[in-house]
User: Fold this.
Amino acid sequence: MTFKWPPSRKAWLLQLSGTLVLAAVVVTRSVRVAIYSARTAARLQYIQVALEFYRREHGCYPPQYLTDQRGRPAHSWRVLVLPYLGYEELFQRYRFDEPWNGPHNRLLATEMPEIYRSPFLDSTSTITQYVGIAGTDTPWRGATPVEGDELLRGRDWESNPLVWFVEAANSDINWMEPRDIPLEQALVGIDVPGGIQSNYSDGLPAQTLPGLRMRVPANTPPDELRAMFTVAGGKDNAQEAVPPSVDGKRSSPDVEHVPNQAEE
Assistant:
């Protein structure tokens, strides 16, 4: 005689199995997002330190881009800081006598440094989500470089930090392309149509001057976004801020090790 579960017992087991599977999926996704969040934070900090080393050597931060002889954007700041990220050899092979997408330089696109690739993107992607907020009153103002003192002068950076660059989920920018997110787009809002999209539900990952990490909430109003993204947004503050300094030679920043995609 074959034993049969009562219909109610079978239904209960099916429901329990479905609940357990759903719980496993939720936990797995939460763990993955936590790992990705740690990687994003580490990569933002690496880029921050590279920019500081550039300033230490050149006396200013890199411009958003270098122009060609006709004044057109030709080379991104992400290329200019390659030596300070440990990619001196790649930097030496990049040619400044042709644009970023010229016949020689375009072949370098697939050698994109892992530091410029969001953990949410495929390992073969040449798109970077690590971009600046570009505008005449931001740290990224075209071909004009800026000094750290200028960016922080008269700003209470503890209560009103200046966002330097972010991880934008909707970026379609090649890592060598001399293009970033326009200020006008950033002021539309976070996680709204036409604005900046985030990979995370708790806000937009951002790196600030002088080296603080933060999440910009999705419900941040435009006036507060302008204060975060523009130099003038902090001019009402009377307190003088001391610009950050980086001691020593080119090296990795002091951050907790986060395994890269190859180590998974």
Summary: The longest helix spans residues 7-58. The mean pLDDT is 82. The chain has one domain: 14-245.
